[in-house]
Amino acid sequence: MCDRHGCDQPGDCPAPKSPNSPERWYFCTEHAGEYNRNWDYFQGLSAEEAAARAADEGRTASGYQQASHYGWGGPGDGTRSRDEMRALEALELDSDADFETIKKTWRRLAKANHPDARPGDAAAAERFRQVQTAYEVLRSAEERRAA
Ligand SMILES: [Zn+2]
After folding, report:
1. pLDDT value at position 146?
2. Whether the Cβ atoms of residue 36 and residue 15 lie closer than 8 Å to each other
3. Can you spell out the DSSP letters for 9-45?
4. How far is the CA of 34 from the centre of ligand 1 (A)?
5. Ligand 1 mean position to 15 CA, how many Å?
6. pLDDT tens across 48-65, in order?
7. What's the rounded Cα separation, in Å, for the pair 131 and 134?
8. What is the CA(107)–ligand 1 centre distance, in A?
9. Residue 14 has pLDDT above 80, yes or no
10. Cα-Cα-Cα-Cα dihedral sign, residues 133, 112, 50, 88
11. Would you say 110 and 90 are in contact if contact means Cβ atoms under 8 Å apart?
């Protein structure tokens, strides 16, 4: 059965749930095509860059903690890691944006680029993914700080 919600076609087209993940969705032909069209996150990247991005995304909370050893030496309040600075950049925010601002901006960008709002728009799908990943980085950093 196709994994796409509400679809009752036979799901005989496997698609990776995330890069390098052994987990698979099983879609019908039509929904596999739709999934692949939206799956352009790695387009335009070299194999090396794509692997680096996949590694970033697969990073666990403890991985982020390790990464925070490499403190950011540039602008900002000096407490944000390189990962967080990159995430802020992805959200088009200044290095000293507070978490309320981050949350508001994330909501706005996620809403504007959501697949439901922009069906079939591959660029929006990629942007949506970037925004989600960036927010996840910033949220877990915020939680760590509050802990
Ligand atoms: Zn389907």
Report:
1. 82
2. yes
3. S---EEEESSTT-S-EEEE-HHHHHHHHHH--TTTT-
4. 9
5. 12
6. 666 666 666 655 444 444
7. 5
8. 29
9. yes
10. negative
11. no
